[in-house]
Design a protein that fits this description.
CATH topology of the largest domain in chain A: Arc Repressor Mutant, subunit A
Largest interface: A-B, 54 and 39 residues
Distance between the termini of chain A: 49 Å
Shape of chain A: elongated
CATH superfamily of the largest domain in chain A: Winged helix-like DNA-binding domain superfamily/Winged helix DNA-binding domain
Strand content of chain B: under 5%
Distance between the termini of chain B: 47 Å
CATH class of the largest domain in chain A: Mainly Alpha
Order of helices and strands of chain A: HHHHHHHHHH
Helix content of chain A: over 70%
Number of domains of chain A: 2
Oligomer: heterodimer
Largest sheet of chain B: none
Chain lengths: 187, 140
């Protein structure tokens, strides 16, 4: 079957054909749900929020001007909904001991990371991600997992490109530092 | 050879699996979307009904005015008509009922417009604030 562009479906929905929302939902639901799970931490909360995201996307479709892709637009809604939810919950996230990270010499850690196998590293990565703040988690996932460009991330998060670059650099350092500590301790 | 930090993350993240969707996720969302569409259609219908009734009220007032003044109907001359409308000595203009009916009609129409504007503004604001605080999704 010929794949139609997102804008085609958007136009159809705008003209009142609600059923055309289903292909868009099918296309983006997995990524959006995964992102929200990573941000809020639980599948139960994420399910409600993901539903909310798509209903809001449908309701606000009239304000979608096509200045960015539909995917980026939906991601932006998802990001804001999930971050707002975490703020409402006032969840306290574990903070990483920055001094512990600073004490770790750079050259030795590179080799430490090279020795760990992928499975083990993935477990460590997931544990390290849990220790980041929701905003940091979202940003790193958007960049590395969902392969979003810096420009798209600026649209999604509402930050400037320079800010996104700096934040990504810091998060990357933090994340790798945490993985290195975990591998060192063999948690 | 040292592995680049970026490369480590670039190789790890794609291996992270996506979360499987909850059961009936699509059906649940589509049901909510259909419900929303239905409510929107219903609201639109009521809005149109509101505007129509406001317009009818105004037209009725105008009809009453034309009927009571009499002269402009008998002599459909623009000059006479304007004079008749503006002439404060005509009996109709001394009638409180006429003035009240005009006021009520105008007020009804004004209220409908104000109500519709406020409702749209509030809905828009609520949607945006719930989603993003001060951000909008219009990408100006």
């Amino acid at each position: 079957m010929e794949k139609l562009s997102d804008n085609y479906y958007v136009e159809k929905i705008r003209s009142g054909k609600t059923d055309f929302f289903a292909p868009l939902l099918e296309k983006y639901s997995v990524q959006v749900f995964s992102l929200i799970v990573k941000i809020v931490g639980t599948r139960e909360d994420a399910e409600e929020l993901a539903q909310d995201v798509f209903v809001k996307a449908y309701s606000s479709l009239s304000s979608f001007r096509g200045d960015c892709s539909f995917s980026t637009w939906v991601y932006r809604i998802a990001y804001n909904v999930a971050i707002s939810a975490t703020r409402r919950k006032k969840t306290e996230y574990l903070t990483v001991d920055e001094t512990q990270l600073a004490d770790l010499p750079d050259d030795r850690d590179e080799t430490t990371l090279e020795h760990a196998d992928t499975e083990e590293r993935l477990v460590h990565l997931n544990r390290a991600l849990e220790q980041l703040s929701p905003e940091e988690r979202a940003m790193i996932i958007l960049f590395y997992k969902d392969d979003k460009s810096l420009k798209e991330i600026t649209v999604i998060t509402g930050l400037t490109e320079a800010n996104v670059k700096i934040k990504l650099f810091r998060i990357r350092k933090k994340l790798l530092g945490m993985i290195k500590i975990m591998e060192k301790k063999r948690i | 050879m040292k592995t680049n930090e970026k490369d480590i993350l670039r190789s790890l993240f794609p291996k992270m699996q996506n979360e499987p969707l909850p059961v009936n996720f699509h059906e649940k969302v589509m049901r909510k979307v259909q419900k929303k569409a239905l409510m929107r259609a219903k609201r639109k219908k009521w809005e149109i009904f509101g505007y129509t009734s406001g317009a009818v009220a105004m037209l009725s007032c105008c009809a009453v005015l034309l009927y009571l003044t009499g002269i402009p109907l008998k002599i459909p001359n623009l000059e006479t008509y304007t004079w008749a409308i503006l002439n404060p000595n005509l009996a109709i203009f001394r009638s409180n009922a006429f003035i009240i009916s005009i006021y009520i009609g105008a007020l009804a129409l004004l209220l409908l417009i104000v109500d519709s504007t406020i409702r749209r503004y509030m809905e828009n604001k609520r949607n945006l604030s719930r989603l993003s605080g001060k951000q909008s999704y219009t990408f100006d």
